[in-house]
Amino acid sequence: MLHGVSFSVGRGEFVALIGPSGSGKSTLLNIVGLLEPATTGSYRIQGDETMQLDEAGLTLRRRAALGFVFQFHHLLPAFTALENATLPALMREGRVSTSQRERARAVLQAVGLANAMDKRPGELSEGMQQRVAIARALVLGPPLILADEPTGNLDQASSDEVFALMRRMHAELRISFLVVTHDPRSAARCDRVIELVDGRVARDEPVRAAAAAV
User: Fold this and answer.
1) Residue 111, in any domain of the structure
2) How many of the other CB atoms lie within 10 Å of CB of 13?
3) Is 176 domain-assigned?
4) Which pTM value belongs to this model?
5) pLDDT tens-place string over residues 67-108
6) Is residue 209 part of a domain?
C-alpha cells in the first residue's frame, strides 16, 4: 500500500526506483504504467489527467505514452526478433505498416542485433533477448519507458551491457526512464534515485547527493 506518494519524472530523466521488498515499488510501477488504478490523488501523463479514464481510454493512453521492459523478456517464442519488436504496433493498430517495420529494423540495429532480426528467441542468448525487449519498448517512441528489474535475470556481464544500452538509448532518444532495481550498481548509474520505504517516499535526490550521503 502506498501513502501520500508524490513525484514527477521529467522529460529525458533516467530515474531509479529502489526500496526493500514489500516497500510498494511494484504497486507504484503498476500505477504509473496504468495497469492498476490509484484510489486517490492525481496522475498526469504529459499534462493529461488519467484518473477519470475508462478501461478503453487507459489502454489507448498506455499504448501511446508508455513502453515496458520486464525482468523476463516475455518474447513470443514462435516470432522472430523483428516480429517481436513490431508487436506494439500490431497491438495498437491491428497491423504493422512498412514504416513501422523499418523503424523496428532500425531500432534492432541500434541495439546491436542487425544480424539477428530473423532469429527466434530460442536462438538468442538471454542478453540478446533482453535487447529485443528493449527494442520492442522503443519502437513506437513512447515518452516514458518503465523498466522492472530489467537486468535481474542476467549475469553480471550481460547486466552491464543491457544497462549501458538503456543509458545509450536514453541519451540518443531523450526518452525518460523509470527503472526499478535492487542492484546498487545499477541505481548508481542513474541520474536520480527515489527510495520507497513502507509505501512512502523516503528520499528523492540526484545520484551524486545520494552517493555523498552514504
Assistant:
1) no
2) 17
3) yes
4) 0.87
5) 998 877 789 999 999 999 999 888 877 888 999 999 999 999
6) yes
The confidence score (pLDDT) of residue 39 equals: 85
3-state SS record for the chain = CCCCCCCCCCCCCEEEEECCCCCCHHHHHHHHCCCCCCCCCCCEECCEECCCCCHHHHHHHHHHHEEEEECCCCCCCCCCHHHHHCHHHHHHHCCCCHHHHHHHHHHHHHCCCCCCCCCCHHHCCHHHHHHHHHHHHHCCCCCEEEEECCCCCCCHHHHHHHHHHHHHHHHHHCCEEEEECCCHHHHHCCCEEEEEECCEEEEEEEHHHHHHHC
pLDDT (tens digit, 9 = 90+) per residue, 150-182? 877 777 887 888 888 889 889 888 899 999 998
Tally of structural domains, the chain: 1
Cβ–Cβ under 8 Å, residues 151 and 163: yes
Which CATH number goes with the domain that contains 59? 3.40.50.300
In a domain, 91, yes or no: no
pLDDT at residue number 212: 43
Which domain covers residue 47, as residue numbers?
A: 14-76+141-213
Average pLDDT of the residues in 110-137: 91
